[in-house]
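A sample follows:
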Amino acid sequence: MKNTVQISGLLTAFLLLIGNIFKTFHWPGAALIITLSIILFAFGFIPLHTVKTFNSENTLASKMRITFGNILAATAVIGVLFKIMYWPMANILMTSSISLFVIGYIPLNVIKALRSEKDITDKIRTILGNVVVALFATGVLFKIMHWSHSIKLVYLNIAFLILAYIPFYFYSKIKKDNLYKSIINTVYIMVLGGVIYTLIDLSNI
């Protein structure tokens, strides 16, 4: 099950990247590839990951929280697909899922971090990371819905990421003699986040 989940996730990311490249160069087939990646994510990766979560030894509260996040993720990407294809209900799907993610899922993560047995440094890092994700999600929502102040939210997110999260992330990891892993994880987060945002921008939605 674990390998299947990983393979479906990697295949989804690969297809999304290829679709993005095709769209950038205006090659035929871009919409089909992006559509396949979204369908695979929503109806392949998410269900598999949810089943694996419920088969794990996590607490019921943790299983429900992760499942809630999975449902929101699937709804959001389906909303993006609907937006690209000019199908009805796109705005409702995206607005509801991203809003619930910011005001529902993120607070649950913060509460989990505060209640955990981790030290104060790990708790602060987790909370700051969730703030970055919340700002990013809000900026994406404002941009794809063509609401005002979307650029200001993007700048705010970048500023918070550079001035608050990344320095504290390095500080907390250096304290634990794990600088290499810190740098690698940071690169992954920044590159993948940038690719996702670029995809949304290039989709002309």
Q: What stands out?
A: The chain has a mean pLDDT of 82. DSSP finds seven helices and no strands in the chain. The radius of gyration is 18 Å.
